[in-house]
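Dear H.,

Thanks for agreeing to be a second pair of eyes. The structure we're designing against is below in token form, covering all 264 positions.
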């Protein structure tokens, strides 16, 4: 038998050698050892984990959010601790809405976006955007930096922090870009829109945002930058710690204290 391989096999072998390996979403139930609960690093940072509740653009608790807790890489959590100290000195506290996000949650977002009949939460989260355009407009994608463990969504709350009334499923929905006194109440400073608002007004430096709203956004952005975070300019609430410990890896362990236990 000849040792020469068919041409198609050689071509495939060359392709395997030169193409970059795809990012892999890990489905293990246990997080890597350098993932931590934010509350263990800085318990003073408030947590309002929206995807563990029905108050989000899907309208239901999201897959993988078994607990309403923030999990991050230790580097990102330590960066938030540094930013928090700077904000406490200014009589503010950070509040996180979302941190590490399992790939299974991202998959649910994709399935939800493909179901054009489900418009339950449109009036609050995307009142001026056609749901069929969510992919093209960049609001929904099949991968999220949150799944790499060093990205979080957050805001600023003035101290002493006021309470926020709980969301009741089925209650009347208010436009996320309405004035602060009209949209869903939040103890955050006024950022010009609510969290997860699918609207160009949520772009961090949208020119229509002025006065106190712009001042608040820039304060958040500038102090976070000083602690090592980069803002995503399409979402005033979205920050990523740099350099990321896992820039190409998308994890899928659930959000639960058990995911951080029994690690070697």
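And this is the sequence the design step returned. I haven't edited it by hand at all.
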């Amino acid at each position: 038998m000849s040792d020469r391989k068919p041409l198609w096999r050689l071509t495939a072998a060359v392709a395997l050698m030169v193409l970059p390996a795809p990012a892999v979403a890990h489905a293990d139930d246990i997080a890597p050892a350098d993932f931590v609960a934010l509350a263990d690093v800085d318990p003073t940072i408030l947590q309002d984990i929206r995807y563990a509740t029905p108050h989000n653009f899907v309208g239901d608790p999201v897959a993988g959010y078994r607990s309403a807790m923030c999990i991050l890489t230790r580097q990102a959590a330590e960066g938030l601790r540094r930013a928090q100290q700077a904000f406490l000195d200014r009589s503010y506290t950070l509040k996180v809405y979302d941190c590490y996000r399992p790939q299974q949650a991202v998959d649910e977002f994709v399935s939800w976006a493909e179901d054009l009949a489900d418009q339950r939460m449109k009036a609050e989260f995307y009142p001026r955007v056609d749901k069929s355009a969510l992919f093209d407009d960049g609001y929904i994608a099949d991968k999220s930096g949150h799944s790499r463990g060093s990205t979080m969504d957050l805001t600023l709350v003035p101290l002493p922090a006021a309470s926020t009334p709980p969301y009741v499923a089925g209650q009347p929905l208010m436009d996320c870009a309405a004035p602060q006194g009209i949209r869903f109440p939040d103890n955050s400073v006024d950022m010009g829109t609510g969290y997860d608002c699918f609207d160009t007004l949520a772009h961090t430096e949208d020119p229509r945002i002025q006065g106190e709203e712009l001042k608040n956004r820039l304060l958040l952005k500038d102090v976070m930058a000083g602690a090592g975070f980069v803002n995503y300019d399409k979402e005033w609430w979205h920050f990523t710690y740099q350099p990321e410990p896992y820039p190409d890896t998308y994890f899928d362990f659930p959000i639960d204290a058990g995911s951080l236990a029994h690690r070697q």
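Two observations from my side: Helices lie at 7-18, 38-41, 74-88, 103-114, 122-125, 211-226. The chain is about 25% helix and 15% strand.

Warmly,
E.
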